[in-house]
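Dear colleague,

Following up on yesterday's call, I've attached the two folding results inline so they're easy to grep. Please treat them as preliminary; we haven't cross-checked anything against experimental data yet. The first protein's sequence and structure tokens come first.
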Amino acid sequence: MAKSILIITSYYPPESGAAANRIFELATGLQKHHFRVSVVTPMPNYPKGSIFKAYSGKLKQTVLEQNVTVHRLWLYASNSKNKLLRLWAMISYSLSLIWFFIWHKIPDTVIVQSPPLVVAFTCMLCLRRKKRKLILNVSDLWPMAGLELGAFKKNFSYKILEKIERFNYNQADLLLGQSHEIIAHIRGMFPEKKTFLYRNYPNFKPPILLDSSKNANKITLVYAGLLGVAQGIYKLCTSLDYTHIVFHIYGAGAEKESIVQFINSNPQLPIVYHGEVSRNALHQVLGRYDVTIIPLLNRIYGSVPSKIFEYARLGIPMLYFGGGEGETLIKQYELGWVVEAGNYQALNQTIKTLTTAGIDSKNRLIIQQTAQKNFDFNKQLSQLKKLL
């Protein structure tokens, strides 16, 4: 008989982004490995901060998607800069989760996504009392990451979040971390806890490689993803030397309007904004560009952008501009070029050298083969399955 497992997350398709994709791959992957999988998630709202039109006005929805039962619950959606409104958004989802726990039979094994810390806390508190096996999937080290991003200050509220973080880790039977830094952080607090390095490997058929655009004078540089504060794409637009590049941008987020306004105000600059497109559509077009850039405004301890693994599988050379463990991966597997986070002078100098670096289909094939060998989703899932 198939073992039942519940995944609780704040992000799930049709929402876009790494978090939604990661949990979707985990859910469908476990289902294909003969688990009976159900997912609890809010009504789709990310990154817009408002409920998607198709789900508006609903308090609850349960559907079967790719043989995974998906329960979508009400929340007060907001991506406001007002911290109280964002906190209420998390609390509202937590209240819906409590209602769900009361009226539904909960499987013996539950995977909880963290962050958000408050949502994870609700799950760990309620489900520990139900004596379930709790697996905490830690994708970012909050509140530490929030402090590094400037979202938090070391005050009383921060100390409360640290206590919640410790509580969540302490209640978990198994902790999954997306980076070695996350695992080290958890073991520093609770050395006796079981941990497992669970990378954000994608799970799609590697595409046939395309010839990138050929331009004798310029390379095509592309960014695709969230246009948020942490990524710093607006700062990138204002700091790049466009002598050697054409810069293409895909995505949406808090900085979108600033970026569009900058482009409109500087029509002489070779920047093209394509808007937000689906993941599948991105896979069709990204291979046409010479190099993709993966930036972070500041180095964030524990963070490893999932774009690294996705772009490697697509066979796209990467220009990594974020520091940390992601930088180590780029160097270790020879996936592209690394520039110190925040050093725009060094970034422009590196880009200048790329015009004569010989970016060709051979390099792309090697990157793709490296990804298939070292970033194997199903191999990793098979190892995780033994611990569930």
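Below is the second protein, in the same order (sequence, then structure):
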Amino acid sequence: MPVNIPRDLPARATLEDEGIFVMSQERASHQDIRPLRIAILNLMPTKIATETQLLRVLGSTPLQVEITLLHMASHESRNTAPEHLEAFYATFDDVRDEYFDGLVITGAPIEKLDFEDVDYWPEMTEILDWSTEHVHSTMHVCWGAQAALYRHYGVGKYELPAKTFGVFNHRVIAPEAILLRGFDEEFAAPHSRHTDVHAADIEATGKVDLLAVSEEAGVFMAATPDFRQVFITGHPEYDRDTLAREYRRDVEAGLEIEKPQHYFPDDDPEREPVMRWRGHGFLLYANWLNYCVYQQTPFQPDTPGG
């Protein structure tokens, strides 16, 4: 079954060219089925690229998924046209009385700021608190994961001496977890962040389980025992060239940046990176949609704890 997105969303053409099954809202309305209601809170400045990446992995399962895109009302986006936000996005005020089967909260390039110094932090905390009652399962990604761990459990973040940047190897430490069904014992995933959360701090909460870690990149995946809250510190949804574009952007801006680790063949930025994380990225989101959302959410989404 397809991911249900607006007919004119720019991501649609890209996904159709890749063979991802997408469906217009008009066609979906004629099917006698309740689709999963999934919201995406897109905090990234490159919103169209992030939409495409997330819709790609969310559209890889047999489940019909109805997508609601959200942006922050308290923050003015400088990299996305207002017309795009007006046409395809809602704000929290638009949906605060609604219920969703799932929510994805993306990362944001603001890790070095204290949480309270982020201009939209009051709105962010309101959304995080709302999600515990109005969403059955929330997938928090990168800065979104750090923000949620801090808000819900008081887990702090630590600035790194050098950016964690590249494609790193990870090992599964909870093979029985439903989120990791079908995973190899070791798998690759991209990271791009200036801050870190510590495994010991997460374990000290007594309420969040570690699921996968990396010797080089640290914690990768954690979740509450009921999988109502999932935390991913990396970017398994990234495209082949996402890290390359980030690297070249920073080089052109004159910033100090090392080449992404374990990414370019022979560490040569002129060579095309090998995609070696997509399979597990698709599997992660498929497991989340199936086991953490579809298999557990009540038929009526206005009772998310049922």
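For the second protein, one point worth flagging: The two ends are 25 Å apart (CA to CA).

Best wishes,
A.L.
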